[in-house]
Write a structure and sequence with these properties.
Shape of chain B: elongated
Strand order of the largest sheet of chain B: 1-5-4
Helix content of chain A: 55-70%
Strand order of the largest sheet of chain A: 1-2
Number of helices of chain A: 4
Number of domains of chain A: 1
Number of helices of chain B: 2
Radius of gyration of chain A: 17 Å
Oligomer: heterodimer
Distance between the termini of chain A: 30 Å
Radius of gyration of chain B: 22 Å
Largest sheet of chain B: 3 strands, antiparallel
Distance between the termini of chain B: 34 Å
Strand content of chain B: 15-25%
Largest sheet of chain A: 2 strands, antiparallel
Number of strands of chain B: 5
Helix content of chain B: 40-55%
Strand content of chain A: 5-15%
């Protein structure tokens, strides 16, 4: 769904991207002890700009996935740094909430229009 | 897996993997003081080997591939008075590094908690999304 389409517009796309990013960050946290695992993340700005240029949300998310560059590489090749991942996970959760409240705003606007208030 | 992996699959399976790790740590610590009359019979520390289970690019959980013996050899100790001592009066202490096991235990507990936190956050967000527009 491209930007401005349908009822939810860009907020609907943003919510789907946020949820995909939540999955990726959860994967990183899950693999904190797996040797050789390389952490990945979605560049959200890039994903959203791709989505607004007509990409499907899943496609845009896949395009914007990149490997994380660790600040201190560990010996077993694992690039998950729990403090980084946890911070980004929390940040992403808050942004997901924010997007939810934008959607809530859109819905209540349309509700008011229906009722003719 | 036929359906796409959800955040509940990811964190849930990671929790069970961490639990296996905690179990091996517990058995290593329980056997840390065990003594054997032969080198072969002595206890050697066990370690789980974690493996990434990938669903789609970037979406991956973790599973225990296998449990292997850590490379710590049992130490020979001369103790003729020990009831298990062999003809030379030697016994073998279990090949367990207690300090390393304790550190591993704390790390496992931390990572388990992290996954619980992920699960809780994801649950709250999902419920909030369900209530959208009500």
């Amino acid at each position: 769904m491209a930007q401005g389409d349908g009822l939810f517009g860009i907020d609907g796309t943003a919510l789907r991207l946020r949820s995909q990013r939540l999955n990726l960050l959860a994967s990183n946290i899950a693999n904190a002890a797996t040797p050789g695992y390389r952490a990945r993340d979605i560049d959200f700005d890039r994903a959203l700009s791709l989505a607004s240029r007509g990409y499907d949300a899943d496609q845009a998310a896949n395009e914007a996935v990149a490997y994380r560059v660790p600040t201190t590489p560990s010996l077993d090749g694992n690039t998950v740094e729990l403090s980084t991942e946890q911070t980004l996970f929390a940040e992403n959760a808050v942004q997901y909430r924010a997007t939810l409240s934008f959607l809530e705003g859109r819905i209540s606007t349309i509700r008011r229009a229906w009722k003719g208030e | 897996m036929t359906r796409p992996m959800s955040v509940f699959d990811i964190a849930g399976r990671a929790m069970s993997a961490q639990l296996v790790r905690l179990n091996t740590t517990a058995s290593n610590l329980a056997n840390a003081g065990s003594v054997s009359g032969t080198r072969e019979g002595a206890f050697r520390a066990l370690r789980p080997v974690f493996r990434t289970v990938e669903d789609s690019p970037g979406v991956a959980t973790v599973a225990v591939d296998r449990v292997v013996q850590a490379g710590i050899e049992p130490t020979r100790r001369h103790d003729p008075s020990h009831p298990l001592a062999d003809a030379n009066g030697d016994v073998w202490d279990a090949g367990v590094d207690s300090a390393a096991e304790l550190i591993d235990m704390v790390e496992t507990a931390r990572q388990y908690q992290n996954n619980v936190q992920v699960l809780q956050t994801a649950k709250t967000l999902t419920l909030d999304t369900l209530r959208l527009g009500q």
